[in-house]
Amino acid sequence: MTVRNEQLQGIPGTTAGIFPAACPSRTVLDHVTSKWGVLVLLALSREPHRWGELRRGIEGISEKMLAQTLRTLEGDGFVHREVQAVIPPRVDYSLTARGRELTEHLLPLMGWIDDNAAEILAPRFD
C-alpha cells in the first residue's frame, strides 16, 4: 500500500505531507523514545534519584548507557543534574518542568504497553 502525502498532512512531525529526514523532531523522538530514555524518564517521574539509585532501579542498563542517556536528556532540557558540594560528592537527577510535561504523556503510553505486552508477545511463544 502506498501512502499518499495528502494522507499524512496534519500529522505532527510532517511537512507538506512527508516526514522529512532533517526534521529536529526525529532527534528528540530518538532521545525520548529510546529504550533507556523512556525508562530513565519514568524512573524520575515520581522523585529525584541519585545515579546509583537509577542504576539499580533500571535493570540491564550499563553504566555507560546510563551516563550517556542522562547526558542526552539533560542536554535536551528534560533532566536536571544537581551536584551538591559535600564529601563524598553527591549528584541528584530530577525532571525539569519540560521533563515532567513529557512524562505526563509517557505514563499513559507505558500503562497501555504494560496492559497489552503479554498478549502482544504471546503469539511469538506459541
Structure commentary:
The relative contact order is 0.12. A three-stranded antiparallel β-sheet has the order 1-3-2. By secondary structure, it is mostly helical. The protein is globular and about 60 Å long. The chain has six helices and three strands; from the N terminus they run αααβααββα. A hairpin with a 5-residue loop joins β2 and β3 (90-95). The mean pLDDT is 89. The two termini are 29 Å apart. It has helices at residues 5-8, 24-33, 35-43, 51-57, 63-75, 97-121, and strands at residues 49-50, 79-84, 90-95.
| Low-confidence parts | none
The count of strands amounts to 3
Helical/strand content category? mainly alpha
Structural Rg: 18 Å
In the sheet with the most strands, the strands line up as 1-3-2
Q: State mean pLDDT (0 to 100 scale).
A: 89
What percentage of the residues does DSSP assign to strands (E)? 5-15%
Q: Largest sheet, described in full?
A: 3 strands, antiparallel
Cα end-to-end separation: 29 Å
Global shape: globular
* Total helical segments: 6
**Helicity range of the residues?**
40-55%
> What order do the SSEs take from the amino end to the carboxyl end, as H and E?
HHHEHHEEH
